[in-house]
Write a structure and sequence with these properties.
It contains 6 helices and 8 strands. By secondary structure, it is α+β, with helices and mostly antiparallel strands.
């Protein structure tokens, strides 16, 4: 694994703490709403906004920005060939100094390879505003959720015990012109998350 992928010598806003003893309760519990609430999605940082609502100390650290081959899932969402180079922006999120998520934004290289979205810093004021400034108006999004064992990189970065699983949330966003603009893959430490399911207003039921 490349040093950049593991986050060494990278832009840093918070450092993760050490691993909790095996078998102990989770050191932190974060709520992740599905689907993402529009007010949270429109904030400067989805995770920072969520954590602030929950009274948690949030941090994030950029792990990697650059080109990498698209997985089958990402390629299908971005409508490119599997293995084609896409722009990847990968960061780790911490809550109360505990690593809880790895979030990777995938963008088509033919659309964003020569823009500031391919530069190795956090995008200010937000990724969303940068996409709008480049002429892309949000149209729709699809979110899918999968629970699975972590790969080695995910286990190491999130400091997971051997038997812990992750939850992968994949959100594909398309413009009003039906252009695949942004795919966000969020790898959540399953034992450190509660997933709140949002209902249509006025239609919640037991």
């Amino acid at each position: 694994m490349d040093d950049r992928m593991l986050g060494r010598d990278s832009t840093q806003e918070s450092e993760p703490a050490g691993r909790a003893p095996e078998g102990s309760p989770p050191r932190v519990l974060v709520r992740r709403t599905l689907p993402t609430e529009p007010a949270v999605r429109g904030s400067a940082s989805l995770f920072l906004a969520e954590a602030e609502r929950q009274g948690l100390k949030a941090g994030r650290r950029m792990l990697y920005v650059g080109l990498e081959p698209a997985s089958d899932q990402v390629a299908a969402c971005l409508r490119v060939e599997p293995g084609a180079d896409v722009v990847a922006r990968r960061k780790m999120m911490t809550a109360n100094d505990v690593p809880v998520r790895i979030a990777t934004s995938y963008l088509r290289a033919d659309l964003f390879g020569g823009t500031r979205l391919a530069e190795p810093e956090f995008v200010r004021p937000s990724l969303q505003s940068a996409l709008v400034a480049l002429g892309h108006t949000f149209g729709r999004a699809e979110e899918s959720l999968v629970a699975r064992p972590p790969v080695a990189f995910e286990r190491e970065t999130l400091e997971l015990d051997a038997e812990e699983w992750i939850v992968q949330v994949l959100r594909a966003s398309y413009s009003t012109a039906d252009i695949p603009v942004h795919v966000l893959e969020t790898i959540c430490a399953a034992s450190r998350h509660v997933f709140s399911i949002a209902q249509v207003s006025g239609h919640d039921e037991f």
